[in-house]
Design brief:
CATH topology of the largest domain: Aspartate Aminotransferase, domain 2
Structural class: alpha/beta
Cofactor: pyridoxal 5'-phosphate
Strand order of the largest sheet: 1-9-8-7-6-2-3-14
Organism: Cytobacillus horneckiae
Strand content: 5-15%
Family: Belongs to the Orn/Lys/Arg decarboxylase class-I family.
CATH superfamily of the largest domain: Type I PLP-dependent aspartate aminotransferase-like (Major domain)
Number of strands: 16
Number of domains: 3
GO molecular function, one term: carboxy-lyase activity
Radius of gyration: 24 Å
Number of helices: 15
Low-confidence stretches: none
Protein name: Arginine decarboxylase
Length: about 475
């Protein structure tokens, strides 16, 4: 097929050009009904005509046989996989679908601990038994990276009935790790490998990027196209290349889990993102590489700013992580926002920039970030010391306690919680990686890390009690 085509986009434009009259949903009637306030409506009027529904000729995401099927086939052919799916509910729905397709109630599943919350939600909904495998800790970056082959081997020995391994690759910061041998090991044991590659949708753009898990024959790979490709928020892909799971099973669960009113603008943007990636040239890579190098070089010249480097220089070049010697990551992020520079995330030590996948002859205002950082660092006293960060010390392999029949919960102070069974998700966000899960024994190390996150200004989802230094535990009989 011709990767210069955008079948869904072209079909939508052809339909709009016919100037049809809408007597169907959605209620804005192709953008005719808006607020009536010009200063607001001007941002929506050119966009809403694309917001259509399953009309004749526009196909149906849940049973594609026209333009959507063509667009998904182009995506699968580009990635050389058996089948690819458009996702309109983010990587979250892809993660849920692959878990439902691969696991059943009471199955044992190995999970890389620094996973996204949607992974644990899926495992919980299925009723499988999660076993955490702890990734390597990078002491320079002060973040968790990837898992090792040796640790996966050990986990399989301890849990020989394992049905699936769920990996996160790359991590939020763009770190990657050797996948090929891990996937081969699992397949030799009949174990399905599911990969949350949310931050690697652009890896197929060229040799300057790490390999995708698709190149190592992972069974199912989910990618957030909207994170680094020109796709709308919630636009994502699911790719299946498995001998163990049929594509029809994925389609079944996606039909159950995805919206019955999928967004045509999101789907069209996924078609555009595939086109953009498939037509990314060597010259585009050369231009991008130059701009990234110039940005990093300018950052390195700012006193008090350190640009973190990947181990053996292997990692995602679109991720640039900096550390300020005199500020926590949260403090630096806030100061940048005061100057109109909005970064992807901060942690107690670092600030993460996600750079654009630029084409040749395309510029981006990197200099604004440089000027803002220079101005900030010129005002910070050199004598001020960065706050220390507790190091995450987790068991290498640990199985969660299975909680039956919703036992009562009780709030206790953080110090009182040590040794008890956690009753809530403790979720610093971003990056959406839980520090504690319900059913996990709370250790002193957990509490030390949690206190440090609170002291350095970390944000948590749906956990107001944490800022009052309280946490929920299960009251278990005999406990």
């Amino acid at each position: 097929m011709n990767q210069k085509q955008m079948p869904l986009v072209e079909q939508l434009i052809n339909y709009i050009n016919k100037k049809p009259v809408s007597f169907h949903v959605p209620g804005h009637k192709s953008g005719r009904l808006l607020s009536g306030r010009e200063e607001i409506d001007q941002y929506f009027q050119s966009f809403l005509p694309l917001d259509l529904t399953e009309l004749s000729g526009l196909d149906d995401l849940h049973s594609p046989e026209g333009a959507i099927e063509e667009a998904e086939t182009l995506l699968a052919e580009f990635h050389r996989v058996k089948k690819s799916f458009f996702l309109v509910n983010g990587s979250t729905v892809g993660n849920l679908a692959m878990i439902y397709a691969a696991l059943s109630k009471d199955d044992t599943v190995l999970i890389q601990r620094n996973c996204h919350k949607s992974i644990m939600n899926g495992v919980s909904l299925v009723g499988a038994h999660p076993v955490f495998i702890t990734p390597e800790y990078d002491y320079e970056w002060r973040v968790a990276g990837g898992v090792t082959l040796e640790l996966v081997e050990e986990a399989i020995r301890q849990y020989p009935d394992t049905k699936a391994l769920i990996l996160t690759y790359p991590n939020y910061y763009g770190m990657v790790y050797p996948l090929e041998e891990i996937i081969k090991l699992c397949h030799n044991h009949g174990i399905v490998v599911l990969v949350d590659e949310a931050h690697g949708a652009h890896f197929a753009a060229g040799d300057m990027f790490p390999d995708s898990a698709l190149q190592f024959n992972a069974d199912i790979v989910v990618q957030s196209a909207h994170k680094t490709l020109p796709a709308m928020t919630m636009g994502a892909y699911l790719h299946i290349n498995s001998e163990l799971i049929p594509p029809e099973k994925i389609q079944l669960y996606l039909n159950m889990l995805q919206s019955s009113s999928p967004s045509y603008p999101i789907m069209a943007s996924l078609d555009i993102a595939r086109y953009y990636l498939a037509n990314y040239t060597n010259q585009d890579q050369i231009n991008l590489n130059k701009q990234i190098k110039r940005f990093k070089d300018q950052l390195d010249l700012i006193e008090g700013i350190h640009v973190l480097k990947y181990n053996q220089s292997i990692g995602d070049p679109l991720k640039v992580t900096i550390h300020a010697s005199s500020l926590s990551g949260f403090e630096l992020q806030k100061l940048l926002e005061d100057k109109g520079i909005y970064t992807e995330l901060a942690d107690p030590a670092n600030v993460l920039f996600i750079l654009p996948l630029l084409k040749a002859k395309t510029e981006y205002p990197f200099e604004k970030a440089i000027h803002a950082l220079k101005a900030i660092m010129e005002t910070i006293p050199v004598a001020k010391k960065a706050k220390s960060q507790a190091v995450h010390q987790f068991p290498r392999i640990s199985k969660l306690i299975t909680i039956e029949e919703n036992p009562p919960l009780r709030q206790v102070t953080l110090d009182e919680a040590v040794g008890n069974v956690c009753g809530q998700v403790v979720l610093p966000y971003p990056p959406g990686i839980p520090l504690l899960y319900p059913g996990e024994i709370i250790t002193k190390e957990h509490i030390d890390v949690l206190k440090n996150l609170l002291n350095t200004g970390a944000r948590f989802q749906n956990t107001r009690n944490l800022h009052k230094r309280y946490i929920e535990i299960y009251e278990l009989s005999g406990g």
